[in-house]
Amino acid sequence: MTRQSRQTRSGQTGSRIRDRRSALGLKQADLARDVGISPSYLNLIEHDRRRIGGKLLVDIARVLKVEPAILSEGAEAAITESLRAVAAGMGRSGSGPMPETDRIDALVARFPGWARALAEQQRRIAARDAVVAGLRDRLRHDPVLAEAMHEMLSGVSAIRATAGILAEDRALDPQWTARFHRNLNEEAERLSDRATALLRHFEVAETTGVEAAPGTLPEDAVEALLDRAGHHFPAIEARGAEAIDDVLGGAEGLPDGPARDLARATLAAYAADAARLPIDRFAPAAEAAEYRPEPLYAMAGGDVALVLRRMATLPPGAPDFGLATV
Fold first, then answer.
1. Tens-place pLDDT, residues 149-175
2. Share of residues in the chain with pLDDT > 70 (%)
3. What is the Cα 171 distance to its own chain's centre?
4. What's the rounded mean pLDDT across residues 57-82?
5. In the chain, what percentage of residues exceed pLDDT 90?
6. How many helices (H) and strands (E) does the chain have?
């Protein structure tokens, strides 16, 4: 990325703030008052003569009712990277003219809506590709699927053998005939139960307002549950682990079995963190620290991982944080 392209993107943050404020019919003086700065300073920001970030950007985004990433240069950088991925994919396919990668910045600046649409399309395609790869791997290695298929094939073989005996031997003793009929009925019921259990194993949790790729693993269903809640559970924050049953009881589309067990374990870990670092103390401290984790380590007795996990579970209104544990 060139210095010029970085300056182009950083210079658009103020313009976005101005455009969003105008769209809401909010006066510059009112926005400045709500975020605690002078109108003249806000004017400099909106005309890209002052850089902005940290708590001030978060406060302005809150008043303008948008995510901070929508206003920041990071959002545009993510779009640009997605568009570069689109171009790279077309290059691998070798079909048609190549996109002009040297003009991506101009595309983002002049047509932000179309650029965002293309980036979102790329994100969805990448997510679908990941799902296909996961399905392929699961069909090869899933022990539950392997066991279920073995049991179903065994059941089909038993039914076929029993039916063959009944069809070929017309002179069977009535007692044996009844026994074979009973065996057929029992094997058919077991086969139906196994097929139903296998279908349930592949069920996907429906999401509300959050698009999730068709999950095939318990982790997918649990991730959808966390996304719907914004990774924050007020009931568990208030009542601890005793609220887990209520949360799971109200979880739509969470299949029984491994997914629900994993969800319970995840929420139990959440409750343990909430007990160690209560939200009523941690959230104000995080805001006072401008959401920098370093000043908060002392609250957790130096447990860095605990602080980072709690940052990722802050209530709505705080910046969005993600935590990847490897």
1. 788 888 888 898 888 888 887 778 888
2. 84
3. 63
4. 74
5. 15
6. 17, 0
DSSP structural state of residue 320: P
Output the CA angle 77-42-26, nearest 5 degrees. Answer: 95
- Residue 206's pLDDT is 37
Do 309 and 273 form a contact (C-beta atoms < 8 A)? yes
Task: Give the C-alpha separation, 237 to 167, whole Å.
Answer: 65
Token pair for residue 149? 């298929």
* Residue 166 CB neighbour total at 10 angstroms: 15
Backbone φ and ψ of 318, nearest 5°: -85, 160
Q: Spell out the long-range contacts of 171-175 with Cβ–Cβ below 8 A and sequence spacing 24 or more.
A: none
Q: Per residue in 9-45, pLDDT tens? A: 445 778 888 888 888 888 999 999 998 888 888 888 8
Cα torsion 318, 27, 111, 213: sign: positive
C-beta of residue 222 within 8 angstroms of C-beta of residue 266:
yes
Q: How far apart are CA 176 and CA 191, in angstroms?
A: 22
Concatenating the DSSP letter of every residue in 69-96 gives HHHSHHHHHHHHHHHHHHHHHHHHHT-S
pLDDT at 61: 86
Residue 292 phi, psi (nearest 5): -95, 130
Rounded Cα–Cα distance for residues 14 and 57 (Å): 10
- Could you tell me how far CA 75 lies from the centroid of its own chain? 17
pLDDT at 275: 93
Bridge partner list, 316: 318
Would you give the DSSP letter of residue 110? H
Question: Which residue is it, tokens 């160690």?
Answer: 276
pLDDT mean over 104-123: 76
**CA–CA separation, 208 vs 280, rounded Å?**
28
Contact (CB, 8 A) for 215 and 224: yes
Residue 48 gets the label, from left (phi > 0), alpha (psi -120 to 50) or beta, of left
Average pLDDT of the chain is: 79
What is the pLDDT at residue 211? 37
Rounded CA-CA distance 9/84 in Å is 16
